[in-house]
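Researcher: Here's a chain I'd like modeled. Treat it as a single chain, no partners, no ligands.
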Amino acid sequence: MGYVKSSAKFFMLRKAAYTHRVVSCSKSDPRADYYAQNIHHEDVVFFRSGQFKAALAKTVDHLFGTSFQNEQQFNEGRVVTQDGFRFRLRQDDIAEVIGYSGSGKELDIPETVQGHVVTRVAPFAFSRQRRITAVSIPDTVDSIGQEAFYICPSLQQVKLPARLKIIGKNAFNYCRALKSVIVPTGTIHIDRHAFYDCTALKTISIPDAVGFIGEKVFGADGDAKVECTIVCRQDSYVEHYAKENGILCSFV
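Model: Modeled as a single isolated chain. Structure tokens:
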């Protein structure tokens, strides 16, 4: 549990040391005493080494059940193809789907490939797949990466996985045929522009567990209009986000 307790220090270090100016505030700055008392030389060395990223990923995984720890293993894994899908297989029996080269329009991503459990949709995995109309993502997946389904203009239906925690930036941006979405109950994070320019989107159900919704998740550029209603619990963070951004709400 030590890495959970220390995660706050990583955020302090990042704020104090961005652009590699570690604790550069003047003596009159009220932060100076705080940093001097809480950030030590070994912390600075740890921060600059880049190891804090791995430790912070471990903290996130522990708290939210995601699988970001040891991200490098995804890059080092071998790539295989099955039924038109491309997967990267990690050494720890985890896999991510990284692309699709088949001719199907209704896609059903498998839960496992060669004994590896598929836990995430990689960034850009289905980007600019203009033919697909429906996607079913297995319940083993906990994150959908940046621009995973960016510019899929024919995509009308998407079944999100029950274990989903994070929807990345621009994940479904410009999916202009998408009409409704149900975000699973355990999802905690919806990044900026995740559903931006989804002009056909009429309803999206968002659970109480969501604690962050990024900038312009909904909306469109130019003359295009998005008349989307968010289904959520009254007096929740999601409702407050909707009101702040002029989005209609319907309560469950």
